[in-house]
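Backbone-to-sequence.
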């Protein structure tokens, strides 16, 4: 089963460049230039139809906040990024510069090649043709995965009418959740949730054009509760104490998030934060009022030294006037009133 969760513009920003833009030429990686690294022509992919091969990366590549160390190159003009290969290979978890029904086996001049120099991993589909429409010409394009998380699509020869042929260009990620099957209590059902998709307008993809995707910060990058809840780089993040992980609950670790009841922990922590913040604000307000009152009393006494009531206040304020102190053994502030009488303003610790 596959279910789609709508959510756009949260993980990547992108820019497109046309034939006249300088960036188009700069983003194209010349595979014949030895300075980029050793190029490998994959024999199986270059002579097959609807085949995919898993390839290891020499670096950790961040994709939707997850670090990938291997990817799957497909003859159909895309890279599969999932861990589990399934029949819905083209539906979710992909990097697709030009996903279409290509058949590299049609011509000896068609190749699928790649290079990895430790800083960038590039896949190039060279001279591939559409099955059943081979006479319309060959297509050459590439996808580059940079170590810092940037993704680029570059095109040299490309003319496909998406109205006549199904084409997909963009990014997608998903997570899998295992739940009891409704048909049989003894079996399990695997459901793939596509939680985000970047879908490009294929009419804007032309020969000698390029697209650059820049990865945005995600909750997964925070390694502490404090950063998770206070960082202004991300929003909607929650900290799970059991997993020691920051997440918005919508990523590839969704199964663990559910198994360890992190959502329930998050709701509880949110309430605690609310109570804690309210207590802190009340304490600060009380302290300011106290300070202001003391200043007024001091001024009053200074100008009215013979009045009896101020003298009474001076004598009694040490024993009666409330004051705030911080107790190391307590998670927050405690308001002390009189000798031996304590009134707690904060009794619950924050989520951290």
């Amino acid at each position: 089963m596959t279910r789609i969760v709508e959510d756009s513009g949260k993980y990547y920003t992108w820019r497109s460049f046309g034939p006249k833009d300088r960036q188009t030429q700069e983003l194209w990686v010349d595979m014949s230039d030895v300075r980029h690294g050793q190029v490998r022509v994959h024999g199986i992919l270059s002579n097959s139809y609807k085949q995919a091969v898993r390839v290891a990366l020499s670096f950790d590549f961040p994709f939707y906040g997850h670090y990938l160390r291997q990817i799957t190159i497909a003859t159909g003009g895309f890279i599969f990024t999932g861990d589990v290969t399934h029949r819905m290979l083209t539906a979710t978890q992909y990097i697709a510069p030009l996903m279409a029904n290509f058949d590299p086996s049609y011509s000896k001049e068609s190749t699928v090649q790649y290079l990895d120099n430790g800083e960038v991993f590039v896949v190039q589909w060279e001279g591939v043709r559409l099955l059943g429409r081979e006479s319309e010409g060959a297509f050459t394009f590439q996808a580059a995965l940079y170590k810092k998380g940037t993704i680029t699509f570059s095109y040299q020869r490309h003319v496909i009418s998406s109205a006549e042929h199904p084409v997909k260009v963009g990014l997608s990620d998903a997570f899998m959740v295992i739940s009891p099957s409704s048909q049989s209590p003894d079996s399990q059902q695997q459901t793939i949730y596509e939680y985000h998709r970047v879908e490009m307008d294929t009419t804007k993809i032309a020969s000698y054009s390029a697209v650059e995707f820049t990865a945005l910060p995600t909750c997964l990058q925070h390694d502490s509760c404090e950063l998770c809840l206070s960082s202004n780089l991300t929003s909607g993040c929650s900290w799970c104490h059991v997993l020691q992980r920051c997440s918005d609950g919508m990523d590839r670790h969704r199964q663990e998030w559910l198994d360890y009841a992190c959502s329930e922990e998050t709701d509880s922590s949110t309430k605690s934060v609310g109570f804690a913040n309210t207590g802190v604000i009340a304490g600060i307000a009380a302290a300011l009022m106290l300070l202001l009152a003391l200043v007024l009393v001091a001024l009053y006494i200074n100008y009215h030294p013979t009045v009896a009531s101020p003298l009474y206040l001076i004598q009694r304020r040490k024993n009666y006037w409330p004051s705030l102190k911080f107790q190391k053994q307590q998670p927050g502030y405690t308001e002390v009133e009189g000798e031996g009488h304590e009134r707690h303003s904060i009794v619950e610790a924050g989520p951290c």
